[in-house]
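Subject: for your reference before the review

Hello V.,

The reviewers asked for a structural picture of the protein, and I figured it would be easier to keep everything in one thread rather than splitting it across files. Below is the amino acid sequence we used in the manuscript, unchanged from the supplementary table.
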Amino acid sequence: FESQMEGKKFFHCGFGEMIMHAFYTMPLFSLLISIAGIGFMGWYIITFGFMSFIEEALGGFLALIFLVLAACFNVLKRFVAYYDFTVYRDGKDIHVRCGLIKQRSYTIPVDKISALQIEQPFFSRIFKKYSVKVVTVGVGDEDGESSNITMSLSKDQLREQLKELVPEFGWAEFDQIEKEEKAGIKVRLVKSIKWHIITIACILVMMLEMNAPWYIGILIPVVCDAFINLLYVLSHMAAGYSILEQGLILASGYFNKVYMMFTYKKAQYITMTYHPVAKKHGIGDGVIMLLNSAASVPYIKEELAHQIEDSIIG
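And here is what came back from the structure prediction:
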């Protein structure tokens, strides 16, 4: 909720909001490992019986318990770290306070912010939630320190808070961005050829030299290859950009999605790469270095890359 005190607008997150933020930002792989472990335990017990499970797979059971506890601890850790999250703007500074066991309070000078980073972890993407971090020197560098200035919010809530906290970024409409060039998926498919070659080599080695069973010698390399290619597709789907007069908005990610927004004067330099297939289609990708971070440039037209270069230099 928000409140007014001494002319300042305070944004505070209650108990329920903190629980939901911990869930929305929970790492996907922690959950998948736990689910896979529980599924394997159920299959083993149904197939071989509970006593066989205790006698033959007790070590695996204990490992499963630790995996589940680790996933639960991750959620709890986030809840404890962000407990009683409160943020407000006072003049040219943003003030943040949070923490249950160890309370942290820090001040962020707005003119020192290099960029805003809007994050959507996997579950946040499903439930259409967003959280914002600032990219600046000195905040978020220490272990356990966060650079968040919001918790997980809906799009409308996010706009409202950003309008109060960082009106300097009012030019950045993060949800109105262009998708990267369609030819970008062709470049990624060509890049994936090396993984197909590695997969075939692994199958030959495991089947001919190691005499591995087919489900190990074939299935495991193929699954790994399929997963890598899935990442190529997901990166294409997440990639986007918006080239504005005031600055840039760049989107990237795989299962998660991250928007980076910054003005041209905060950019240090840009490096563009033109893969042979990309060059054929007149596109390239690259990276823009900020003072203490970097932003990935998706596959864009070469003339747009030059436009960005000119804006950074200018």
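For the response letter, the relevant points are probably these. The chain is about 45% helix and 25% strand. Residues 185 and 215 are 30 Å apart (CA to CA).

Happy to draft the paragraph if you're swamped.

O.
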